[in-house]
Amino acid sequence: MRHVIPNKIEGFYIHIPFCKAKCPYCDFFSIPYKDITLDKLYVNAALSEFDKRLTALISQGIVPSNNPTIYIGGGTPTVFSISELSRLIEEVKYRLYKEGASHIREITVECNPESSSLSLFKRLNKIGVTRVSIGAQELIHKGLLALQRPHIPDDAINTIIMAGEANIASIAIDLIYGWPSQTLSDLNNTLCVLEDIMPRIQHVSWYELSYEPHTPFFSMRQKGLIQPLDDDTLIEMAQLIKGFLKSKGIYQYEISNFSRPSHECAHNISYWENRPYLGIGPSAVSYIPPRRWQNARDIAAYMRGEALGEQWAETLSVEASFRETVVIGLRKIRGVSQKQLKDRYGIDMFSYYGNIIIELIDAGLLRYDGNDLVNLTKRGLRVSNEILSRLV
To answer: In 3D, which of 74, 76, 15, 30 has the Cα closest to residue 215?
Structure first.
C-alpha cells in the first residue's frame, strides 16, 4: 500500500476566541471580549506561536505551499482594533513569503455586523484581504431574536453594502435555517430581504441549526423549552434555499455552501480535501499528516506566553486517513476522484468498500460518472449523514 504524505501546508487558520456575546447555539471556543486592551497581547501570542510552529515544521521538511490560504476566524476577529487585526495579517503574510510562499491565494476574515465599519473593510482591502465572511445568521427580526443575535437586520444589510463599497473581492454571508419557531413564511421573508442585496454577495453558507451538547440551546431542547423543526419542514426549507440561490447564479458546491463561479472558499476546500493545515490559537485544530491535534483552551496561559498543551491528538493510519478523505470529500457536490485517492493512498475506492458503494449507487444515493468521480445524488444529499456514517 503506497501512501503519499503531503509536505506542503495548504492553509493557515488563526483563531480569535473573543465575541461581544456568546450565542446560545455556538459550540466554538470563545469568551466575551470585555477588556479592549487584550488585542495586542493576543496578537503577540499568536505571532509567537505561529513562529514556533512554523519553524518546527520547516525543520521537518514541511513547508508552506506556494499559494496557501489564510483564514482569520473566531469568535469574532473584528472585535479587535483595526490596527492590531491588520498587524496580525501583515505579519503572517510576511512570514509566509519569507518561508517560500510566492502568492497568498486567499485571505478570509470573519466579521459580525455589530463590529464592522467601512474604515475596517477599507483597511482590510488595503492589506490584501480578499474575502470577508459576515456572520449575519438571519435577516429578519424574528429570526435574530430567536437566535439571540446582538444586531438588527439593517446592521447586516449595511455591513454587506460597506464591504462592497470597500471593494472587497469576495463577500460571503453566513445564515442559519431551522431555528425554533421558524416557518416557511419566515424563510420566504428572509429570501425577500436577501433578494435586494443578492447582487452584492458572492458566497452564501446556509446551515441547518444544530443543537450541540454543552450549549444553552441544547439544554433548552432537553428541557422542552424549545422544539426543533420536523424533518419534512427542514427538507422543504433546504430545497427552497437551493432553488432561490441557484436562480440568482449562486450554485451549491458543498452540502451547506453556495457560491458564484470562482468564488468558492479555497481555504475550506482544502479542509474537504483533507490537505495539511496549521491552526493557531487556543482550541485551534491542526492537521499535518498523519497527525491531527487541537490546542488546549487556555487563553490566560496563552497570553502569558506559556506553551499550549494539547486538548487531544490522534495519529491516523493510512486506511483511517483514506476513509476520512472519502467522507469529507463527499460533502462537495463534485464528490471525490477515485484516481486521486489511489494516487495519494494506493487504495482503490471500489475494491476497498466493496458492496457498500455498489449498494449506495443502486439505491440512488451515490452516483459514479463511469470514469472517475463519485458523488452524492440529490436524494443522497438529503440523507448525507447516514450515507457518510457507512463509509467512515
So the answer is: 30
Contact 211, 263 (CB under 8 A): no
One-letter amino acid of 50: F
DSSP letters along 84-122, please?
A: HHHHHHHHHHHHHHHTT-S---EEEEEE-GGG--HHHHH
Which residues lie across from 219 on neighbouring strands? none
In the sheet where 285-288 sits, what is the strand order?
251-254, 257-259, 203-208, 170-177, 131-137, 106-111, 63-74, 8-16, 277-280, 285-288, 291-295, 310-315
pLDDT in tens, 113-161: 999 999 999 999 999 999 999 999 999 999 999 999 999 999 999 999 9
Question: Do the Cβ atoms of 297 and 282 come closer than 8 Å?
Answer: yes
CA 64, CA 10: separation in Å to the nearest integer? Answer: 7
Q: Which amino acid is at 352?
A: Y
Q: How far apart are CA 335 and CA 365, in angstroms?
A: 12
* Residues in Cβ contact with 33 at an 8 Å cutoff, skipping those fewer than 6 apart: 18, 19, 20, 76, 79
- Range(s) within the chain of domains with CATH label 3.80.30.20: 8-272
Tell me: domain 8-272, CATH 3.40.50.700, correct? Answer: no
What is the model's pTM?
0.95
| Across 225-230, average pLDDT | 94
With contact defined as beta carbons under 8 Å apart, do 295 and 312 qualify?
Answer: no
Q: Which of 202, 175, 203 is nearest to 190 (CA)?
A: 175
CB 338 within 8 A of CB 372: yes
